[in-house]
Amino acid sequence: MFIFGPVPSRRLGRSIGINNIPPKICTYSCIYCQVGRSTKMFSDRKDFKNTDAIIKELYTKLEKLDKKNEKIDYLTLVSDGEPTLDKNLCKLIKELKKTGIKTALISNSTLLTRKDVIEDILLVDWLSLKVDTINEKLWTKIDRPLKTLILEDILDSVKDISNLHNGITVSETMLVKDLNDRSSDLKDTADFLSECDFETSYISVPTRPPAEKWCLPPEESNINMAYHIFKNHLENVELNISYEGNDFSSTGDVEKDLLSITKVHPMKEEAIMEYLRKNNMTEKNLERIIKTGLLKKTCFNNENFYIFSNKKL
Ligand code: SF4
């Protein structure tokens, strides 16, 4: 299950997700991570021996979508881990580009200090780089990085790549209540971003169940303050905090597709219900999947979500 979606994306329209990393392998273990705590953390790139299988699965998916006349805006490398840890990323991106569909990659920026990673990510059409804070203490608390990572080096690389990348390069800053949502820290982050060359700087907040239950979105007044501080420093700022919609679809194997989506993208209850309705399924089918132990219901911010459960992995 390397391919999921199409899923609605607030920034990329209808996107097919490509999950090129085995579950929960990352250089960070962010408190807000929607796939839970990282179980393996390292910064060496590895050959996960999955490129051919990914491409095969992608073409099967694209054929099915073509038959249904479904349009795709982006093929997005967004893993339940850090996609640049894949040693075969270059080969994979080149294969994705052969489809003629635009490519996107969402990275936590930690490996941009490596020349081989830079060469790979410059290939995509749309690149999102994470900059949650420039304060080392907050960085350690929020992103919980590998001990070998150096924030200053990462930030220098982010600045360089934002200038080097020929496609669309955006930044993403995830705000967490009582951590990086104070005005002084927001000013520092915005100041740093203003030295980079991002087309748009997005402000996000946790909207799906996070790795740590105590990790919450900031108060609305602080989100507004963050927006205005960023706006004072940067030309294009957008809040990426609204609901992306329920337009999830399946291309045949409804249950398998549902599990692939929830592996990377926890779904709101209303989205799951609409997905079931669209695919002539009932809540009984959902109960059956839950009984297998691969899907579980959870509550975050007073809303019910369904998330993949890797109890069986
Ligand atoms: S949110 Fe992204 S960077 Fe953070 S732990 Fe999860 S996969 Fe890694």
From TrEMBL:
Q: Report whether RNA-binding shows up as a keyword of the record.
A: no
Q: Does the keyword Hydrolase apply?
A: no
Which Pfam families does the UniProt record give? Radical_SAM (PF04055)
Residue ranges annotated as coiled coil are: none
Organism domain of life: Bacteria
This chain belongs to the protein called Radical SAM protein
Q: Where is the Radical SAM core domain?
A: 11-244
Q: Which species does this protein come from?
A: Muiribacterium halophilum
For this UniProt record, the keywords arranged alphabetically read as follows: 4Fe-4S, Iron, Iron-sulfur, Metal-binding, S-adenosyl-L-methionine
Q: What are the required cofactors?
A: [4Fe-4S] cluster
| PANTHER family, alphabetized | FEMO COFACTOR BIOSYNTHESIS PROTEIN NIFB-RELATED, UPF0026 PROTEIN SLR1464
| GO molecular function per UniProt | 4 iron, 4 sulfur cluster binding; catalytic activity; metal ion binding
